[in-house]
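Technical annex B. To support the medicinal chemistry partners, we prepared a structural model of the target in complex with 2,5-dideoxy-2,5-imino-D-mannitol, based solely on the information shown next.
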Amino acid sequence: MGNPKWALAPWAVLLLLQLSSASHHTRRSLETEAASPSVPASIVSPLLRTGYHFQPPMNWINDPNGPLYYKGWYHLFYQYNPKGAVWGNIIWAHSVSRDLINWIALEPAITPSIPTDKYGVWSGSTTILHDGTPAILYTGIGRPDTNYQIQNIALPKNASDPLLREWTKPDYNPIAVPVAGINATQFRDPTTAWFAGGRWRMLVGGLRPGTLRGEAILYRSRDFKHWVRAKHPLHSALTGMWECPDFYPVAKAGAERGLDTSAYGAGVAKHVLKNSLDLTRYDYYTVGTYDNTAERYVPDNPTGDVYRRLQYDYGNFYASKTFFDPVKQRRILLGWANESDSVAHDKAKGWAGIQAIPRKIWLDPSGKQLVQWPIEELEKLRGKPVNVGDKVVMPGQHFEVTGLHSYQSDVEVSFEVSSLDKAEPFDPAYINDAQKLCGMKGADVKGGVGPFGLWVLASADLAEKTAVFFRVFKDGYGGKPVVLMCSDPSKSSLTPDLYKPTFAGFVDTDISSGKISLRSLIDRSVVESFGAGGKTCILSRVYPSMALGKDAHLHVFNNGATDIKVSRLAAWEMKKPLMNGA
Ligand code: DQQ
């Protein structure tokens, strides 16, 4: 997207380029290259516009901003270009919902209007103050063309309005400016604040001047008006700029309940720190311990910021944000799923970007990672069901799941692997690079145990299909079998100019029982998948040219050398919710 340009020395840029995956650059170039003259008819087909994922009726969207629950309504603000399907003219658009599934569009909440946001209103978060009033902290661009970044506050004009339709910017703006020691063009996206020991704290993402050190810059305030920067950032790492940081407590391992962002002490097992790396366009997190007196956050895994990094999602998912839902006592994650087609395609379609399905998020029983699952409200959209049980898929075989229109569906499968004996040996050289391994061993590369999984959005002749699958290796890290989860869109479409990376992540699950599950939310041009009950998640944007609407098919496949049993498959056609009037 047309985001701020790097203000780094050439040597630093070169190093960053080397560190970055090739796929990032492919995506970037697709987003910035000149429009190609021809746009195939299928790309502009309404059958590729998602049905139950969040989007406005038209134009560009990116980051979710300031989600919150207030007086009976869920609010979602988001970065939006009211004038077109490319990044630019960004404002905070605003939608409300009773259930996070059916959405009503309201007037924009924040638009440029004061000297410290005159050239842009960028991402930020909401905090519920002690009197119950929400406050928005957001980044303003204060100078033309230079991306000079400043933090601002906005408050509801009328806090008794449950829809929070109007927002004002108090005179005491700005609340934080890029003083010495802060890189003024890499200083943005304030978090939800938390309260401890008489003071509010919040983080702003940054890049330490003249270095590659991404950081979560810490601020404190007694009154939410005057903010003072702490001497040290809460945390930092040599990974490049940290966009959209997020920081929150989680309850004890395995407990699905969420905690208020200010929760501390008894009941808090760990804290989670997430950053969105502009360099790779993925959201990474660590699980660790926060000491609010020493003002230190220490990840449990000391190398977790750079090596074998945990991602919320290993696919097309970025600039995410969580919030605490007091109604159902859960923490909910929202994330932006960008397009993988070209700028020319987006302009022709007239829209670009969706939000992923809201996910409940909690600490895995292992305490080492998070688990995510689509919020239960999504199930209200389930319509016609189809069930398959106890079906063995032999090596090289596949079967079609018939009886439903799967182009807008929710599919849950439980697999049983008959034996792990034929699992391929694992090459430890790939332990830090699931994506590379999956790129080499795609869905059509025969294996020992797997690849097995789903072909979704498949054309009748199978010339087009997106594969979501598992592959099991033996003798991995710590002697355990290694489970790889991949989303392979290399055959998803015959349309040219599409970005078709094979996304992948390892799944930290015990497969010795042979059991593993997969859930895929299929929605016309998005496939959002949850492996092993939400331990590993991958969202892919795909644009079939033939497998559109009723011409899209769903299969279970097995390209391994070991029998796989589908012990249960349940699929539902999904209804269309209210979607911002579209
Ligand atoms: N998008 C916003 C920035 C943020 C970036 C601008 C992340 O505030 O850093 O639209 O996608």
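Notes passed to the chemistry partners:
Residues 281 and 318 are 6 Å apart (CA to CA).
The helical segments are 10-19, 22-32, 343-349, 434-440.
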